[in-house]
Specification:
The complex is a heterodimer. Chain A is an all-alpha fold. Chain A contains five helices and no strands. The longest helix of chain A is centred in the N-terminal third of the chain and has 21 residues, at 15-35. By secondary structure, chain B is of the alpha/beta class. Chain B has helices spanning 5-13, 15-19, 40-52, 73-77, 91-95, 148-151, 163-172, 193-208, 226-236, 285-289, 330-348, 403-429; strands at 31-36, 56-61, 66-68, 87-89, 99-101, 105-109, 114-117, 122-124, 127-130, 134-136, 178-183, 213-218, 241-244, 252-256, 261-264, 269-271, 274-277, 281-283, 299-302, 307-308, 314-316, 321-322, 357-367, 370-381, 384-387, 393-394. Chain B has a five-stranded parallel β-sheet. Chain B has three domains: 5-133 and 284-354, FAD/NAD(P)-binding domain (3-Layer(bba) Sandwich), CATH 3.50.50; 136-281, 3-Layer(bba) Sandwich (FAD/NAD(P)-binding domain); 362-420, Alpha-Beta Complex (Flavocytochrome C Sulfide Dehydrogenase, Chain A Domain 3). Chain B is 30% helix and 27% strand. Classes of the chains: A mainly alpha, B alpha/beta. Chains A and B meet through helix 1, helix 2 and helix 4 of A and helix 3, helix 11, strand 23, strand 24 and helix 12 of B.
């Protein structure tokens, strides 16, 4: 919802911000396929919405990609993201701080 | 909801006002987005557009009132799911503010940017997305036409033939009868799908028809998640499955539906009590008629935007496209959809397309509490699409895991498969 409002406003404003919001929406779109539209999870798939701080979220993704955190698919997936992309995801999914 | 011609003309005059009355039609990025096809690509496009780009006026054209997914059809075949659990309606998408029109498309007039419907209505658009799905190449295997598919079901395109037909034949098969599967060469819809089907049928045979065998005749020599599937078959269904690749005369060139017989490239004839023929495929007719397909029968796209490489102003996505190394999967169609919508929104706002990242997560059920997966993260390259180096791949092989972790891993992936299915269908239809 927050994102929706943000995009709505950004459509009327500056281009770099619009681009970043669109990039975030697209990245989040990839998570939604399994974790649900709101990141709520289900059927054993963990909820990823507002469970962690940004730093914790980023650290978890790094641990996945370094094979330092037990995973089924997330190790293989996390290695496809750049640090910037993980930061965008963290900003969206981390709890408000 | 079916709109009359007059309503459409009104919609054409006041695009944003109808769908989103709180937004002025002069808003930056406003425009009429029409989506043809309400499957994984089309329904995901409509939902993503509605959630993220309120300035878009969205019409989804889909001839059927319900959508039955290909994913989880193999579980219906095995008797583990019912048809109604894999069938969805468009009511909620409609309630979200997507104009859903249940009509067949007669033609796409790309020159004047209009879609003509069977009831005579014309739907004008600023940007068009087509997510048409596939057609089967009748006659590509000699003797395999639509009539033959009644006796030898394909069970591959739910809108043409429900998986329940093959299910009934499997249930009626006598114990000791052979189940023959005919599997096509690449490219085709859902690369691991035939092998999940082998697994699910074998599970059913082991339980209900222990004297029966499954013979899979494959037109190629390798397949998706092959080592994982074959390890599991040996472990779970010893002696039940015989898989033959092309170099072991697995390619079927002719069928005789009346005799329930298939013939291989080198002339061997095999009779089945049930014969499941998954024939070669191509982009659906509507896409070919619109000029989107090339000689291969599939639709080339501009990688950066998923706009057709052949017809300007039409974005084409999903199984109908040429987008290797991305597979023809529902998850990938949904990923194409989101990117295409974002590109359209950017273009209507006069901006450059966003950076492209595409995702695939594809689970297969191999047995009870036994799931495996393949995942991929992709980007655009100079001449097409690339898998991002170091990412993606399949579940670990048995030898790479301790016995305990292996059991847990397979169990979790079976559970997550169900979670994926719930999440993605809820995104499209919930």
């Amino acid at each position: 919802m927050k994102l929706k409002v943000a995009l709505c406003l950004l459509l009327l404003s500056g281009s770099p911000v619009f681009a970043q919001a669109t990039d975030a929406a697209l990245l989040i779109g990839g998570c939604q396929g399994c974790h649900g539209v709101n990141g709520q999870g289900g059927h054993g798939i963990p909820s990823i919405k507002a469970n962690h701080s940004r730093d914790e979220f980023t650290a978890i993704m790094r641990a996945f990609s370094a094979n330092e955190r037990q995973a089924t698919v997330m190790g293989r997936i996390s290695r496809g993201y750049s640090a910037e992309q993980i930061a965008l995801l963290a900003a969206h999914y981390a709890r408000a701080q | 909801m079916v709109l009359s011609r007059r309503t459409f003309l009104a919609a054409a005059a006041l695009p944003a006002a109808l769908a989103a009355p709180h937004i002025a039609s002069a808003q930056v990025g406003a425009g009429r987005l029409v989506i043809i096809g309400g499957g994984f690509g089309g329904a995901s496009a409509a939902r993503f557009a509605r959630d993220n780009f309120p300035a878009l006026d969205i019409t989804l054209i889909e001839r059927s009132r319900t959508f039955t997914t290909c994913p989880y059809g193999n579980l219906v075949l095995a008797g583990r799911r019912e048809m109604n659990s894999i069938t969805f309606g468009y009511e909620k998408l409609s309630a979200r503010g997507v104009r859903v029109v249940h009509q067949s498309v007669v033609a796409v007039d790309a020159g004047v940017k209009r879609v003509r419907l069977a009831d005579g209505a014309q739907v004008p658009y600023d940007r068009l997305i087509m997510s048409p799905g596939i057609d089967l190449r009748w006659g590509a295997i000699e003797g395999y036409d639509e009539a033959a598919s009644e006796r030898m079901p394909h069970g591959w395109v739910p809108s043409l033939q429900p998986i329940s037909l093959l299910r009934r034949q499997l249930e009626a098969m006598p114990d000791g009868g052979n189940f023959i599967m005919v599997i096509p060469d690449n490219p085709f819809r859902c690369p691991p799908g035939p092998y999940e089907r082998i697994s699910m049928v074998a599970e059913y045979l082991k339980r209900a028809k222990p004297r029966s065998k499954l013979i899979a005749l494959d037109a190629k020599n390798g397949f998706s998640k092959q080592p994982l599937f074959q390890e599991a078959w040996q472990e779970l269904y010893p002696g039940i499955i015989e898989w033959r690749g092309a170099s072991s005369d697995g390619r079927v060139t002719r069928v005789n539906a009346a005799a329930m017989e298939v013939e291989t490239e080198f002339g061997e004839k095999l009779k089945g009590a049930v014969v499941n023929v998954i024939p070669p495929q191509m982009a659906a007719k509507i896409a070919r008629d619109a000029g989107l397909a090339n000689q291969s029968g599939w639709c080339p796209v501009k990688p950066a935007t998923f706009e057709s490489a052949q017809v300007e102003g039409i974005h084409v996505l999903g199984d109908a496209t040429i987008a290797a190394p991305m597979p023809k999967s529902g998850f990938v169609a949904s990923s194409h959809a989101k990117h295409a919508v974002a590109c359209i929104a950017a273009s209507l706002a006069g901006r450059a397309p966003p950076a492209a990242t595409f995702f695939n997560t594809c689970y297969s059920h191999v047995g009870t509490d036994y799931g495996i997966s393949i995942v991929g993260v992709f980007r655009t390259g100079p001449n097409g699409f690339l898998e991002i180096q170091g990412s993606g791949g399949v579940s670990p092989r048995n030898a790479a895991l301790t016995v305990e972790r292996r059991k847990e891993h397979r169990q979790l992936e079976a559970l997550y498969a169900d979670g994926w299915y719930d999440s993605i269908t809820n995104e499209m239809f919930g």
